């Protein structure tokens, strides 16, 4: 029957006569033969070649496209149909929001995902489809797919605020959906590299605190030091790193080394010396402390008697030549 109708349509020269038969054929293809793809082609033929203003053809195309999740056909209907509902003013004045429109019509996230995935197969860089897919993957808690799609959106996004939001959302998905805190930390770190502010640093510190990622946080702090030419900032970074080494990693000797290496930024040791002396008492690294005193003594002048307050009395003893007696 469908083939017979096709032959009859081909013989007609008057579009007004051909349209009813073409609509009948499209309906037959859907209702009896379950061939929505051929029905869509038949309806598109009506709109493109027979009667572009046919309300029935436009409405039928919309119904068949939505029922079959055929995004390409639905988009063609939405962009070209004079019979389709008018686009709201808020949307017509901006970009076409395919994700919201199509998802609202389907009202089924999984069906919408399938539709948008087919769009991306055809147009891998289609911005609206990628944004819609990312939102839908997040809605359905598919963390891996969300992060992969958000990465594609991120490559096409220049606005700093939008990039930051995407990176935060990707980090949240990595931590909560995938249970990969180190991956989440790395995504927060990327956001921090783009915009090193207190909010992002706070998220890095909170993630490290929750999952024990202290070495990762130390690398972030070290990166802070590398970026800053300010000696005071360098000293503050060293203090933070030393604090993590001592309190979180239980490595006071490493903390001592970190602060000692930072003396080049605090040559008078006005900030670092008290901490170095305290750590020397904890680690019993008296030779290391003597070396610190010697290093500081070669720097800016200090008041007489300012050195060696942390050493035990027996280590401050001197022989008749005034030389240190060494380790007791």
Describe this structure in words.
The chain has 19 helices and no strands. The chain has 328 residues and is mainly α. The chain folds into four domains: 1-85; 106-156, no CATH class; 159-212; 228-318, Serine Threonine Protein Phosphatase 5, Tetratricopeptide repeat (Alpha Horseshoe). Helix 17 runs antiparallel to helix 18 (286-297).
Question: How much strand?
Answer: under 5%
User: What is the CA-atom radius of gyration, in angstroms?
Assistant: 35 Å
Which architecture of the largest domain would the CATH scheme give at its second level? Answer: Alpha Horseshoe
The ordered string of helix (H) and strand (E) elements is HHHHHHHHHHHHHHHHHHH
Terminal CA distance: 108 Å
The amount of helix comes to over 70%
What is the CATH class of the largest domain?
Mainly Alpha
What are the defining features of this structure?
19 helices; 0% strand; 328 residues; 4 domains; mainly alpha; single chain
Itemize the secondary structure elements and their pairings:
Layout (H helix, E strand, L loop, with lengths): L1 H10 L3 H17 L4 H15 L4 H13 L3 H10 L8 H4 L5 H9 L2 H14 L4 H13 L3 H13 L4 H18 L3 H14 L3 H14 L2 H14 L3 H17 L4 H10 L10 H12 L2 H12 L15 H4 L12
Helix pairs in contact: 1-2, 2-3, 3-4, 4-5, 7-8, 8-9, 9-10, 10-11, 11-12, 12-13, 14-15, 15-16, 16-17, 17-18
Could you give a quick summary of the protein structure above?
This protein has 328 residues and is mainly alpha-helical. The chain has helices at 2-11, 15-31, 36-50, 55-67, 71-80, 89-92, 98-106, 109-122, 127-139, 143-155, 160-177, 181-194, 198-211, 214-227, 231-247, 252-261, 272-283, 286-297, 313-316. The protein folds into four domains: 1-85; 106-156, no CATH class; 159-212; 228-318, Alpha Horseshoe (Serine Threonine Protein Phosphatase 5, Tetratricopeptide repeat), CATH 1.25.40.
